[in-house]
């Protein structure tokens, strides 16, 4: 199921719900990561990673909010996903980096952890990547800044992390980088206060929905 939340004549942003959207999301995210970082690859060479991303997202789907950008032809050209951690399911942060937020950030039961992931943009879509990132990121951090005691956790491409910091998102690195989905990936967190400068500056993009 898809709900239209924004349109501007160039592209549409949809909120996705249901398992039926996950295969399309997984294929887009993995393909775009490889397009950005690997000169030549085939579907056969990435299908295992697509399935891994699909299976991972399947376990979070009940708590996930997924946003995709589609062009006028209906093709996905951008995506992001956020979910509130139930402290039971294994996070990507734990699976990939062996980092438990309850050990490295806060163990208090009244703190919430929101995982942001699956950000990808088709750089050949004709829309500036930074434009789509700012709008998708505003949607993703909205529930976090509305949560009194909350943290964003993420595994972020090293180049994207520099962009995030430049846009006013204050992050803390939680561990060493590794190669994940064809790029140098860094585990990070950000408190609600660390997100507010970015959110307040670009809040109009959320309100335009």
Structure write-up:
The chain has 209 residues and is α+β, with helices and mostly antiparallel strands. The protein has a single domain, classed as Aminopeptidase (3-Layer(aba) Sandwich). 41% of the residues lie in helices and 29% in strands. The chain contains seven helices and nine strands, in the order ββααββααβαβαβββα. Strands 1, 2, 3, 4, 5, 6, 7, 8 and 9 form a nine-stranded mixed beta sheet that branches. Helix 1 packs across helix 2 and helix 5 packs across helix 7. The longest helix is centred in the first third of the chain and has 18 residues. It is globular and about 45 Å long. The model has no long low-confidence stretch (mean pLDDT 92).
Which structural class matches the secondary elements?
alpha+beta
Count of domain modules: 1
- Strand residue percentage: 25-35%
Low-confidence stretches are none
Number of strands: 9
The CATH superfamily title: Gcn5-related N-acetyltransferase (GNAT)
Helical content class: 40-55%
CATH architecture: 3-Layer(aba) Sandwich
Largest sheet: 9 strands, mixed
SSE ordering: EEHHEEHHEHEHEEEH
Q: Can you tell me the overall shape?
A: globular
CATH first level: Alpha Beta
CA-CA gap between termini:
18 Å
Radius of gyration: 16 Å
Mean pLDDT: 92
């Amino acid at each position: 199921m898809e709900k239209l939340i924004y349109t501007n004549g160039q592209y549409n942003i949809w909120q996705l719900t249901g398992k039926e959207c996950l295969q399309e999301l997984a294929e887009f995210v993995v393909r775009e990561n490889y397009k950005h970082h690997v000169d030549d690859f085939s579907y056969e060479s990435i299908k295992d990673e697509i399935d891994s991303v699909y299976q991972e997202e399947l376990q979070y789907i009940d708590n996930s909010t997924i946003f995709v950008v589609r062009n006028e032809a209906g093709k996905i050209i951008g995506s992001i996903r956020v979910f509130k951690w139930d402290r039971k399911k294994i996070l990507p942060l734990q699976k990939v980096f062996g980092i438990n937020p309850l050990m490295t950030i806060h163990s208090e039961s009244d703190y919430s952890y929101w995982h942001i992931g699956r950000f990808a943009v088709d750089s050949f879509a004709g829309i500036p990547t930074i434009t789509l990132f700012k709008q998708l990121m505003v949607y993703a951090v909205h529930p976090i800044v509305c949560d009194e005691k909350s943290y964003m956790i993420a595994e972020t491409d090293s180049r994207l992390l520099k962009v995030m910091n430049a846009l006013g998102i204050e992050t803390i690195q939680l561990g060493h980088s590794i190669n994940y989905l064809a790029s140098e990936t860094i585990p990070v967190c950000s408190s609600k206060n660390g997100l507010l400068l970015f959110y307040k500056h670009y809040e109009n993009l959320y309100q335009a929905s």
